[in-house]
Amino acid sequence: MNKFAATVYLFFVFTCMGFSQINPAQDYLSINNIFMWIYNDGRSSHDPRTDGGGLFWSMSQNPQGVVYQDGLVWGGKVNGEVRVNGSTYRTGIKPGNMIDLNNFGNPNDSLFGIWKLKENWEQTSGAEKDRYEYNYKNWPGYLGAPYEDVDHDGKFSLEVDKPKIFGDEMLWFVANDGDSAKSDSCYGSPPIGLELQGTVFGFAQENYLKDVVFKKYKLINKSQTTVEEMALSYWSDPDLGFAGDDFIGIDTTLQMSYCYNGDNNDEDFYGENPPAIGYLYLQNPYVQSAQSDSGLIDGKWRKGIKNIRIGANIPGLKQMGSGTFSDPPMNQYIGTVHWYNFMNGLGRDTLPMVDPNTQQKVKIALAGDPVVKTGWYEGEGWPNGPSLGGDRRLYTSTEKFTLAPEDTQEIVIAILLARGTSNLNSITELRNVATQVRDFYYSQFLTDVNDETVQPREFVLHQNFPNPFNPSTVISYQLSVSSKVSLKVYDILGNEVVTLVDEVKPAGKYQVNFNTQNTTNGKQLTSGVYFYQLHAGDFIQTKKMIILK
Questions:
Q1: Which DSSP letter does residue 243 get?
Q2: Is residue 152 in a domain?
Q3: 493 conformational bin, left if phi > 0, alpha if psi -120 to 50, beta if neither
Q4: Partner residues linked to 474 by β-bridges
Q5: Partner residues linked to 214 by β-bridges
Q6: pLDDT of residue 322
Q7: β-pair type (52-53, 46-47)
Q8: What is the CATH classification number for the domain harbouring 540?
Q9: What is the pLDDT of residue 144?
Q10: How many CA atoms lie within 13 A of 174 on its CB side?
Q11: At residue 338, what are phi and psi to the nearest 5 degrees?
């Protein structure tokens, strides 16, 4: 635990109100370069001590705030009526599980605080260890907290099954939108009847994962009514150092919205070459599809479904006001209407967005590339648009889906930061990190990524993990059809180091372990850059990896 995190921990010991010291109403994740506040009512990235920004980055130096507040928002139609709820500057949900619209857990019960665990928690000491030991022994798997089904009976048994820890540090909570007054105070909407389970985790590794936090949300419809035309949004008010010079954009290929500095000098905070922050949509809700398709649900690949994509992105330019893309008013039903318009790729006034460069109607704004200067992007890529940066919002939404009673859907977001040699190069570095994070999530993190019942739809060579590495790393790839496969490693001069695979393989997903001592000539490899190349039929792809000793 770093010094900053230790100070915050003492804050909890003396100031937790309404909850035991074991599991408070607000807690934090601090396992790598990101320090992030989490609330048991769905809010996040807001500091309860200062009422200011609560996501800090680069903990090895003086931490700087990069997000004022963010959270998950959902909207849909119940019997034809539009309803929106979630967490932005206020939250429309409260702690506790939900049985139905009239029965839910007591929000003041410490059972519904933030549950926190660490990998190797036994090596901690004092009050920290006491808390982890209590949480490990009393883990609320019966409420939906992730667990390992040791006895394989399909249900949680407290004295037999074990908590399932994602990453090296994990927080979990359960909440619901069943309180009409809370829901109304958010955007003036009646409740839908959803239970929300949130899992937040990070990795303590000295690679790209040190700048990443993962957030997994599970939504369960506990009402008796189907929600039609539903969408999810991960909303954010990023303040990238100084908030008055920010730009925003979206990379539709990566499925990532992001915020970066409008010029190469972040006044008073990061100075020259400021970083960029991204919200990477790793796993969206699923819909039924052809049997040849496959999608993700509950950490598993399933046939006959597909995950939907980002469907709308609004240029959030202003604070609450009357502008077309300004923040929807709170505690008024018109705020629900405005939010749902945003989810449909429309302005608050229901007018469609028009790309200023092509004059075509679009639902995803700012999908151009500010690095290579193509398409619609802030600054030069927005004729007659705002020329200067400012305080921005991210309003990015998924495509639509249906949520029937007792249905469960998930969304997984990775929040990541990167800093390059300029404000625009930081976007490039952010994309590089996002690519590695996506490869990691799909090829390494999912519990049954090698399930042979799922037919891959394309040839893919994933980034090795870990990278850099010493002495071993894992290389993953997938084949859409049976192919003659060659997987080789080369040094920087193009000399072959080792052949890892040289045989015909059926369609499927594969992992190969590469150890620096297992080379063709038996010599152990030295530090440096190496390349691995996959030949599978007509498919050829090469990726770089680094040995660091």
A1: G
A2: no
A3: alpha
A4: 465, 513
A5: 201, 414
A6: 60
A7: antiparallel
A8: 2.60.40.1930
A9: 96
A10: 22
A11: -60, -45
